[in-house]
Design a protein that fits this description.
It is a single chain. This protein has 149 residues and is mainly α. The chain has 9 helices and no strands. The chain has helices at residues 2-10, 13-19, 24-34, 44-53, 60-76, 84-88, 96-107, 115-124, 128-144. The longest helix has 17 residues, at 60-76. The N and C termini lie far apart (50 Å).
Length: 149
């Protein structure tokens, strides 16, 4: 936290370096601090871009933190939600915990989620609880986008 305060005061480069740090805990904490982008005088686009890139992180914990942070930001702070369709493509994540969190998060923004990647991920899903979340997400997408079978 202390190092990130210094980094935030000095430049955006500190956050970029922290997100490239080899330790997953550092990257995960950096996402937490990016949630407070206004505290560091960062542009929302810059913070969101780093968080969206974390959806491809090697650590499932970092990916899950990124999902939670993006969900939190879209519900409370962000007006630009153009990254949501990209999140739909991440439903094929290798970690079921991340897939579950993604499906739960995307259901809150179902009007902006493309149906095709959700259907493709649902066909491949094997975990029962995650499959239920995917099915609910499909229902929400169909309801909010007024789609018919």
């Amino acid at each position: 936290g202390e190092q990130l305060e210094i980094a935030g005061e000095n430049s955006r480069e500190g956050f970029v370096r922290a997100m490239a740090f080899p330790n997953w805990k550092t990257r995960m904490r950096t996402i937490f601090w990016l949630r407070q982008y206004d505290r560091w005088n960062l542009e929302p686009e810059f913070a969101v871009d780093l968080i969206v890139k974390a959806l491809d992180d090697s650590s499932r914990r970092v990916r899950k933190e990124a999902v939670g942070t993006l969900s939190w930001l879209t519900q409370r702070k962000l007006k630009d939600r153009s990254f949501i369709p990209e999140m739909g493509g991440k439903l094929a994540d290798p970690a079921r915990h991340v897939r579950y969190a993604l499906a739960k998060s995307l259901a809150r923004q179902a009007e902006e989620v493309p149906l095709k990647p959700v259907l493709e991920a649902t066909v491949r899903e094997t975990h029962p609880a995650t499959l239920v979340k995917f099915q609910r997400l499909i229902g929400k997408i169909m309801e909010t986008q007024d789609l018919k079978l």
